[in-house]
Amino acid sequence: RNIILSNPRKRNALSLSMLQSLKEDLLHDVKSKELRVIVISAEGPVFCSGHDLKELASEDDVKHHSQVFEICAEVMTLIQKLPVPVIAKVNGLATAAGCQLVASCDIAVASEKSQFATPGVNIGLFCSTPAVALGRSLPRKVALEMLFTGEPLSAQEALMHGLVSKVVPEDKLEEETMKISHKICESSKSILALGKATFYRQITQDLDTAYKMTAQVMVDNLTLRDGQEGIEAFIQKRKPVWSH
C-alpha cells in the first residue's frame, strides 16, 4: 500500500489532521491478507517539514498541544507495531517530526538530494520527541550534533550513520523502493510479522534476555505451518507455498 503525504503547499507538515489521517491510513485494512508492505512517500520538494508551527503558536492552548504530540507518538510507535514492514521513500527535505517519521520506519530509501535535520533548537522548540526516534537510529554523538545545531545531514551522511537504508539517484528511487517491496512480498506474511515484532522486542533488552526470548521465538516459529513449509521447500529445492 502507498501512503502519500499530499499537502506540498504546507511542506507536508504533520498538522493534527495530517497525523490523524496518517494513523487511519496505517491502520486501514491492516489485517488483510493482501497487505504485505506499506510505503510512505510525499508530494513536492519537501518530504515532511515536521509539526505545523501555526498550531503550536499559542502558549495557552495546552490541551491542543498535548493532543498533537500524543497522536504523533502514537503514529511513530504504531509504525513499529504494524505486522508488515513500513518503508519511507524520501525525495527531499525531512525535518523535525518529518525526520522522526523517517527514523521510525523499518526501512528508508532516499534520493541523493534528500536531507535530514532537527532544527527546532533554532526557533526555541527543541526537537525532544524527534530525538526519541533519532537516538534509536543514529549514534548518540551524531544525533546530538543534529539536535544541538539544527544542521542537516546529507543523504550520504544519513546512510553512513544508519538513518536510511539506501541512497539512490532520484530517477531510481521508485525502482529501488519497488525492488525491496517485491522482495518482501516473496516471504511469508506471518513469518515477517513474527520477525518484526520480535526484533523490536529484543532490541531494548539485555543480551542474555534477548537470546533467551528469541530462542523461544525460533522454537515457536518452527511450529508454524510456514516455518515447516519453508524448510521443506529449501530441502526439496523448490519455491515455498506460503499460507498467506
From TrEMBL:
GO terms for cellular component: mitochondrion. It is found in: Mitochondrion. It holds the Pfam family ECH_1. SUPFAM superfamilies: ClpP/crotonase (SSF52096). CDD domains: crotonase-like. Keywords: Fatty acid metabolism, Lipid metabolism, Mitochondrion, Transit peptide. GO terms for molecular function: hydro-lyase activity. It comes from the Eukaryota. Coiled coil: none annotated. One of its GO terms (biological process) is fatty acid metabolic process. May play a role in fatty acid biosynthesis and insulin sensitivity. PANTHER family: ENOYL-COA HYDRATASE DOMAIN-CONTAINING PROTEIN 3, MITOCHONDRIAL, PTHR43602. Belongs to the enoyl-CoA hydratase/isomerase family. This is Enoyl-CoA hydratase domain-containing protein 3, mitochondrial. It comes from Semnornis frantzii. The gene is Echdc3.
